Amino acid sequence: MGMLSCGHLHCTSGSKQALISLSDKKGLAFVGNGLQELGYSIVSTGGTASALESAGVAVTKVEQLTKFPEMLDGRVKTLHPNIHGGILARRDQKHHIEALSTHGIGTFDVVVVNLYPFYDKVTSAGGIEFEDGIENVDIGGPAMIRAAAKNHKDVLIVVDTEDYPALLEFLKGNQDDIKFRLKLAWKAFQHVASYDSAVSEWLWKQSVGDKFPPSLTVPLSLKSPLRYGENPHQKAAFYVDKSLSEVNAGGIATAIQHHGKEMSYNNYLDADAAWNCVCEFRKPTCVVVKHTNPCGVASRDDILEAYRLAVKADPVSAFGGIVAFNVEIDEALAKEIREFRSPTDGETRMFYEIVVAPSYTEKGLEILCGKSKTLRILEAKKNEAGKLSLRQVGGGWLAQDSDDLTPQDIKFNVVSEKAPQDDELCDAEFAWLCVKHVKSNAIVIAKNNCMLGMGSGQPNRVESLRIAIRKAGDDVKGAALVSDAFFPFAWKDAVEEACESGIGVIAEPGGSIRDQDAIDCCNKYGVSLLFTNVRHFRH
């Protein structure tokens, strides 16, 4: 190392230096004392230097190295050759070391830096003024982090407080490990990239605000490795979206798991489907999901009755499924979930993979935990409306608005001679909410706020219709039938089969060149037909 002139301080050749500059001072005393005990001279800035001194660590302030005071309200303090030269100089390049020596600059072996809390500031409950947001954009910090990470062969860069013990252990070992250095460098660049993505997202929202910017970065943070993916031969992991727009915006990703086995890849998909569906309903509602499709949905003032009806809709599918509620699970509901017997034989206790609810009473949670050691019990917050929906295709991503429409947002236009009764219209609205969560081609049959049958994922609409009618059984008489898209044919096809089954009202988007056939068919059979002008494809 070259000679370092630090104002009144004279750093001798061969001394080891660490630069520490932290906004988040968690673990500062630990790392500062640890480095000092290992023989490192500590160089620091402002509040970090004061905190280190309070912890009994001897500190050289940055100004002593730069011979220049902090200026512009602290905007410029570390942006100086005496700092960056000491970070970026390559130890294996003779002319680099000679240049440092000529200018009296010493090298840094360790750089410990984290950044202004921009993310926390702009997402704080009270909000933040634009100018305050700008002032929380760190400049010097990222510059030091990037410089140290670039020169990772000679400089250890630490941006995560969790890495302090590993850093000290590494330095105590006196053995170099390029993989350790590379991992710290990767984490440093990833840290800065996530930070910059937050600044970029915030500025875009402040300026243009359009949902689809010309360039988009989505910061993801690993929540947990998963045992496997959709199938055991596929490796998998679960990431949380750290975009500013997702802060306190609800969803399964941020759900609290109170009990049970670790979540799997398919668990997350199914829990997400169940939670998104149950949150659509205003009345106390239970939704049962299997393979992301709702197989039972019921709304009642009495949530226990809603639960029983949702299971009864398709008890075979419900077994081993996911149960979601939009109300708190109390002692009575928890007992019902724990003890309810399958309607197929009246004896077998219903088994579920997951229960999801917005909250639990203390007793309710205790009882539910007693159902099974493996039962995953999740507490989730409703997704906010207006989220950006992203979906991957090979080599790219599709982005769209979330499908947030409710029955109150649309019109159920009567196009048949017979108008529906009030209760039939309510049934149609309920079924319409259900069908938007069923895989296309989707048909839902419902009556009295209860899904009686559904057909999903069939390549043609007639097959989905037949499945739904078969599941509904005799209860189909007078029920409402909703299709996620228009019927391309009516006579001797889906519409006529629905009418012949005894359906009371049909709701569909309309838009087919054969819409008149559907109207004529419904008129012939005395069935009410409603056009919504809203399609609900789900792939």
UniProtKB/TrEMBL annotation:
Database matches in Gene3D superfamilies: 3.40.140.20, Methylglyoxal synthase-like domain
Molecular function as annotated in GO: IMP cyclohydrolase activity; phosphoribosylaminoimidazolecarboxamide formyltransferase activity
HAMAP family, sorted: PurH
Keyword Coiled coil: no
Pathways per UniProt: Purine metabolism; IMP biosynthesis via de novo pathway; IMP from 5-formamido-1-(5-phospho-D-ribosyl)imidazole-4-carboxamide: step 1/1; Purine metabolism; IMP biosynthesis via de novo pathway; 5-formamido-1-(5-phospho-D-ribosyl)imidazole-4-carboxamide from 5-amino-1-(5-phospho-D-ribosyl)imidazole-4-carboxamide (10-formyl THF route): step 1/1
CDD domains: IMPCH
InterPro entries xrefs: AICAR_Tfase_dup_dom_sf, Cytidine_deaminase-like, MGS-like_dom, MGS-like_dom_sf, PurH-like
Matching NCBIfam families: PRK00881.1, purH
CC per GO annotation: cytosol
SUPFAM superfamilies noted in UniProt: Cytidine deaminase-like, Methylglyoxal synthase-like
Similarity remark: Belongs to the PurH family.
Residues annotated as domain MGS-like: 7-159
Source species taxonomy: Eukaryota, Viridiplantae, Streptophyta, Embryophyta, Tracheophyta
Full protein name: Bifunctional purine biosynthesis protein PurH isoform B
Keywords: Hydrolase, Multifunctional enzyme, Purine biosynthesis, Transferase
Protein origin, superkingdom: Eukaryota
Biological processes per GO annotation: 'de novo' IMP biosynthetic process
Reactions performed catalytically: (6R)-10-formyltetrahydrofolate + 5-amino-1-(5-phospho-beta-D-ribosyl)imidazole-4-carboxamide = 5-formamido-1-(5-phospho-D-ribosyl)imidazole-4-carboxamide + (6S)-5,6,7,8-tetrahydrofolate; IMP + H2O = 5-formamido-1-(5-phospho-D-ribosyl)imidazole-4-carboxamide
SMART domains, alphabetized: AICARFT_IMPCHas, MGS
E.C. number: 2.1.2.3, 3.5.4.10
